[in-house]
Amino acid sequence: MRRLFVQIFTCALTLLVYAGQAAAFETSARAAYVLDQTTGTVLLAKNADTPLPPASMSKLMTLYMAFEAVRDGRLSMEERLPVSQHAMSYGGSTMFLDTTDRVKVADLLRGIIVLSGNDACAVLAEALSTDGTEAGFARDMTRRAQQLGMTNSAFVNSNGWPAAGHRMSMRDLGLLANRLITDFPEFYPMFAETEFAFDGRAPKNTQNRNPLLKLGIGADGLKTGHTSEAGYGLVGSARQGNRRVIFVISGLDSARARAEVSEAIVNWSFRQFSEIRLLRQGQRIAEADVWEGALPKVGLVPAEDVEVLLPAIGSKDVKAEVVYHGPIQAPIAEGQKLGELVISPEELPEIRVPLVAEQAIAAGGFSARLKIATLSLMKQFGLQVEGAS
């Protein structure tokens, strides 16, 4: 592995950005995870991979699977589903459904998102389960979560009702929120709805519990959660300009603390970090030696614009390093991946940017190979060839 420090590029970065150390966010939450979705930068991870009781935040998994079913044609928004005795038996936050109801899928989805309906989750679970039961659907949820990369999640029911073994990590919830936003843009606006008065049944349960939606800070989702075991939690997201932040908190001791910590995280995320366009697509970063090629070197360039998230305040240089296996054997195709640019901002995870060939390099003919072999031999003996570089 050849490691080449690009001093000229490092100096150029100093002229473009001023990157310093952002103060770490201190939170009383038992666990927390903050992701800048636009750049994929993790801004905060506190006990982020610990499986914890997620309470109603696990309803997001039920919603994801319901959205998949609508998209795939297994459900329609206008379809009406029956309510079983089991679904009706749930307490806590509900839509007050009973077994005489047949409820539209669109109403059930809003009943989960806005009203946090435990009964609505069970209705959808029984409709989508491979064996017709909520327990079967929970097993389906666990399998689907694993497929999506949520390796610290296991489900016992569809709604987060307290149960042994029903667990999710904060990172998994952040991954799920990101998938909901990116995979289902047609459904995501429902998470910003502040009120849903279903059939006039529950006048005291018509308001979305998300405390950020009416604050004017760009918040537009996703789901609160609370049980005595889990404490108060929130999977939230906010967008300001071109940036979106996703965050998950859990284990707070009151709804007020949840609201205060959530607002503070959003403000910290947008005020303390700035998105910077560091490189342009096709901008030459370095040159790599070519072996047995028609040309001795090939330019290394990013395949697309490189935008990174950096602390907004400070004056320290950003460290950058080009890494590639060299010399690179010809022939080389234009756009072929040859190495990586490793950017190391202070107090943030390193960023790895693929670097590709700036141009195609054909294999050299006999004379080119003979020259390379001669130069190689001369270097071994500490000699120089006149005119060689």
Report on the architecture of this protein.
With 389 residues, this protein is an alpha+beta fold. 28% of the residues lie in helices and 25% in strands. Helix 2 packs across helix 5, helix 4 packs across helix 5 and helix 5 packs across helix 6. The longest helix has 17 residues. It starts with a strand and ends in a 9-residue tail after the last helix.
Question: Topology of this protein?
Answer:
Blueprint: E1 2-4, H1 7-16, E2 31-36, E3 41-46, H2 59-72, E4 80-82, H3 85-88, E5 102-104, H4 105-113, H5 118-128, H6 134-147, H7 170-183, E6 219-227, E7 231-240, E8 243-252, H8 255-271, E9 273-279, E10 286-291, E11 297-302, E12 306-311, E13 319-324, E14 328-329, E15 337-344, E16 351-357, H9 366-380
Parallel strand pairs: 10-14
Antiparallel strand pairs: 1-13, 2-3, 2-8, 4-5, 6-7, 7-8, 9-12, 10-11, 11-16, 13-15, 15-16
Entry summary:
28% of the residues lie in helices and 25% in strands.
Distinctive features:
alpha+beta; disordered N terminus; 389 residues; 9 helices
Poorly predicted regions: 1-21
Shape: elongated
Strand-pairing-aware structural class: alpha+beta
Please count the helical segments.
Answer: 9
Q: What is the count of β-strands?
A: 16
Profile the largest sheet. 7 strands, mixed
Radius of gyration: 27 Å
Which percent range fits the helix content?
25-40%
H/E series, N to C? EHEEHEHEHHHHEEEHEEEEEEEEH
Lateral arrangement of strands in the main beta sheet:
1-13-15-16-11-10-14
- Please give the oligomerization state of what you see: single chain
Q: Please report the distance between the alpha carbons of the first and last residues.
A: 23 Å
How much of the sequence is in beta strands?
25-35%
Mean of residue pLDDT? Answer: 88
